[in-house]
Amino acid sequence: MDLTSNYIRAIKSFEQIDIAVLVNNIILDAVHQKASDIHIEPWESTIPIRLRVSGILCELTHLPHELLDRISGRLKVMADLTTYETELPQEGRAPASPDYANVELRVSIFPTVRGEKIVIRLFDPNNRSFNLESLGFESGTIDEFRKIINQPSGLILLNGPTGSGKTTAIYSALCHLIESHGPTISISTVEDPVEFNLPMISQSQVSNSRGFTYPKALRSLMRQDPEVIMIGEIRDPDTAAIAVQAGLTGHMVISTIHSDSTAGVFARLINMKIEPFLLASSITGVLGLRLLRTICSNCKTETKPNPEHLTQLPESFVNETTFYTGIGCESCSQTGYHGRVAVTEFLNTNEILREGIIQKLRTSKLRNIAIEQGMTTLWQNAIAKVQRGVTSLEEVIRIITVNQL
Ligand SMILES: [Zn+2]
Predict the structure, then answer these.
(1) 307: which of 87, 105, 230, 375 is 20 to 30 A away, CA to CA?
(2) Same-domain status, 290 and 386
(3) In angstroms, what is the span from residue 293 Cα to ligand 1's centroid?
(4) pLDDT tens, 363-394?
């Protein structure tokens, strides 16, 4: 039984609730379940408290409506927000506290017609090291990725939706560089927000409200003599231009960018007014990334997948494969899954692909060239994990959309 439900059960009336204890209990439950976010949202008759665990929202408990204003008031105090403001969105950070397992909170409050919707993102700010080998990358990907991060210059891009493991992969790459070079390498980051504090790396957090934007931070950072620069995300033309320039002038730059596919990052950057020849000469590789839930080893069972799903697979693959799923048990909270593993697609910007980028070829053409040049796709790598019984076919179909086939 979770702390929150236990606490609610133990009190006689809602007037007796110590709101600080209730909020701490919700956070402790989230930390215990390894959740990334807490959703507190007014529905018609209750406020469900939901946790995002391994990328999926699950219910922790339901609370009565009369507690919503007190919970939001408490979180506003913790995150230093305006307590009487209920009509406008607000965002803030609450520092880590031993009262709630030393996690840092990023609180976002959004007005809805039924009251304020609250989403809390949890961060573990403790010094932590990250390991490239433990991400579960395919061996081909890890070799190529290691090769390009060890080059003295160039721009490396990671691509995938929110929550696909991009930050963890970048932090692991930076930790790998620190391990191999020690104090002889200068690494700086500009992030929004800093998610973990890394040893021997200068990390800065942009603040748009104070005018400390990505472009401003990066222009100053270039005068700080860094060898490696990590940019949290490229999302505007100015940041894109500086990232490309830095990659061309003797810096190793690593960043993330949103686009609908790995090969689509070139079109995205051309839309940001970057000249194709600059992209072709600066970008050394693009890593597409997704996370797949792994089948719970405790309740793993052979299964016959949905026949409709099977039509997407080659017949020989279906004949040779034993499909598995998790039927749900106590140790996986009846989800059938336990933990996640990365699935990747590594696009190496070689000579032939560079030619295609300069010619502004369509994304599908660039993708075909990459495949001809030996790129194993997200889909191929994912179904290999199905064949090894690591994940289920349903999970692959849930995460990898058809245009990535
Ligand atoms: Zn299980």
Answers:
(1) 375
(2) yes
(3) 12
(4) 999 999 999 999 999 999 999 999 999 999 99
Say yes or no: 83 and 159 in one domain.
no
Pair (7, 146) in one structural domain: no
Question: Could you tell me the pLDDT band of residue 232, with boundaries at 50, 70 and 90?
Answer: very high
39 and 171 in a single domain? The answer is no
Q: How far is the CA of 303 from the centre of ligand 1 (A)?
A: 15
Ligand 1 centroid–CA 33 distance in Å is 15
Q: Enter the tokens of residue 50.
A: 């939901």
Q: Are residues 253 and 303 in the same domain?
A: yes
Convert the pLDDT of each residue in 100-151 to its tens digit: 999 999 999 999 999 999 999 998 766 566 889 888 899 999 999 999 999 9
How far does residue 211's CA lie from ligand 1's centre (Å)?
Answer: 48
**End-to-end C-alpha distance for the chain, whole angstroms:** 42
Which of 123, 145, 177 delimits the end of a domain?
Answer: 123
The domain of 22 spans: 3-123
* CATH number of residue 117's parent domain: 3.30.450.90
Same domain, 169 and 274: yes
- Expressed in angstroms and rounded, the spacing between residue 325 Cα and the centre of ligand 1 is 10
DSSP string, 306-373: -HHHHTTS-HHHHHH---EEE---GGGTTSSEEEEEEEEEEEE--HHHHHHHHTT--HHHHHHHHHHT
User: How remote is the CA of residue 312 from the centroid of ligand 1, in Å?
Assistant: 27
Pair (116, 136) in one structural domain: no
Question: Which residues have CB less than 5 Å away from ligand 1 (the ion)?
Answer: 296, 298-299, 326, 329, 332
The total domain count for the chain is 2
H helix runs in 150-227, sequence order: 166-181, 214-221
d(CA 7, CA 174): 42
Q: What percent of the chain has pLDDT over 90?
A: 85
